[in-house]
Amino acid sequence: MSTMYRVTNPATGEVAEEFATATDSEILAALDRSATTFTEWSQTSVADRAAILTRVSEIYAQRAEELAGVIQLEMGKAVPEGKGEVGLSSAIYRYFADNAEAFMADEPLRGPEDGTAMIRRKPVGSLLGIMPWNFPYYQVARFAAPNLALGNTILLKHAPQCPRSAQIMEEIFIEAGLPEGAYINIYASNEQVADLILPDPRNHGVSLTGSERAGSAVAAEAGKNLKKVVLELGGSDPYILLDTPDVAKSASTFFKTRMGNTGQACNSPKRMIVMDDVYDEFLSSITEAAKKFTPEAPGDEGSRLSPLSSVAAADRFIEQVQDTVKDGATLLAGGKRYDGGGAYVEPVVLADVEKGMRGYYEELFGPAVIVYRVSSEEEAVEMANDTPFGLGTAVFSNDLERAERVGSQIDSGMVFLNAPEGTREYLPFGGVKRSGVGRELGPLAMDEFVNKQMVFKKN
User: Fold this and answer.
1) Which tens digits make up the pLDDT trace of 37-88?
2) Catalytic: which of 232, 346, 425, 448?
3) What does UniProt give as the signal peptide span (predicted)?
4) How far apart are CA 350 and CA 72, in angstroms?
């Protein structure tokens, strides 16, 4: 069997299951089914589409334990975290089911009294989604839910290491009553995306969540074929601590946030920027926490540290850390692989990271904490903005006005004040600079792949 799609347990490195990569004829047939079903699905009432999404939400909630177990095997996520992801996915489907009619309501336009005008939101056609491995259900939900609510149809190319969860998601849609062809899972290659799907006139856009390299390649192909893109790419989000009455508590909050999903989240706070009057105590607290953080088998209740998604991911992470230390950074904790195989790595704490080092500009996609010392708000803002990314920001201060003042100067798509960065179904998600283009979640998600048709009626 020719395949790039396989389930490899990151805790052991063993291949558990393989799925055949689609043939060219299967890809073309999927395109045809998706385009044909669009005619039916786009003419289905918004209320009926919403009812199906509500049922999808219910199925996710009912099957949470099973679904969490699947991604534990695929990419190493501990079962408690996996169940949390399933719950968030369920909430996303319900949110767009509950709000679809309001989000799609005609929008009146004011003008001279010679007529009436409005914006009418209509679906555009079959879309391609290219999704990553780090949140197998959630990433799909935030693309699929708003677009299915709109009446678009979807071809979904998931990450090669998540073929089982990809298959299950298609099955859930069908079980919920979605017409076959409205959502199709495809085990496509990158070449099939570039050579078959994006040039095909039956495709009307592509949404990708992934690396800068993948986003750049897909955007280039989409642009060549005049297709709209939504890109959610990397992040090197700053977490700015201006002042705090309890340094140890602030350090604990940051560390727990950073270690979520074993540090494998684009909006995870990867740069801790701390005022110098609390820097030493903060760094000491973070280092102590990291040294206590030990691996446990993924899936165990209370699991504290799961493996990275793959052995290759662990190798790259350790290489980035070692290169940064070699260039002069101070390694205070971690930096090695755990014995026993698999993709387990020690949590890392780095200080004295400077420009020119890999750790300064590259995204460390794993359990790494980088702490920077600053002596003023101006210096904190300058450092926070000194990155090619611009996804999210968190700013903490006892003085909310101070936090707002600093937060308003950060070049990012999202700002959290006195709260760690997080995801909620009603909050728009997306960034600027090399973190991507477009927005997902919240009311803005339904403004991406939509025909905002102007309708004018002469009086």
Assistant:
1) 999 999 999 999 999 999 999 999 999 999 999 999 999 998 999 999 999 9
2) 232
3) none
4) 29
User: Mind giving me the DSSP string for 121-174?
Assistant: EEE--EEEEE--SSSTTHHHHHHHHHHHHHT-EEEEE--TT-HHHHHHHHHHHH
Q: 374: which 2 tokens?
A: 């600053």
Q: Of 454, 453, 449, whose CA–CA distance to 146 is shortest?
A: 449
Q: How far is CA 189 from CA 85, 160, 201, 224, in A?
A: 26, 9, 19, 19
Q: Please name which of 168, 145, 129 lies closest in space to residue 17, comparing C-alpha atoms.
A: 168
Report how far apart, in Å, the C-alpha atoms of 145 and of each of 36, 138, 275 are: 20, 10, 41
Pick the catalytic residue: 221, 266, 363, 421?
Answer: 266
Active site residue 232: yes
CA atoms within 13 A on the CB side of 214: 20
Residue 105 pLDDT class (50, 70, 90 cuts): very high
Of the candidate ranges 208-217, 288-297, 411-420, the one whose mean pLDDT is the lowest: 288-297
Residue reference for tokens 């919920």: 176
Burial class (CB in 10 A: 0-12, 13-18, 19+), 147: buried
Residue 294 has pLDDT above 80, yes or no: no
For residue 8, give the 3-state DSSP assignment: strand
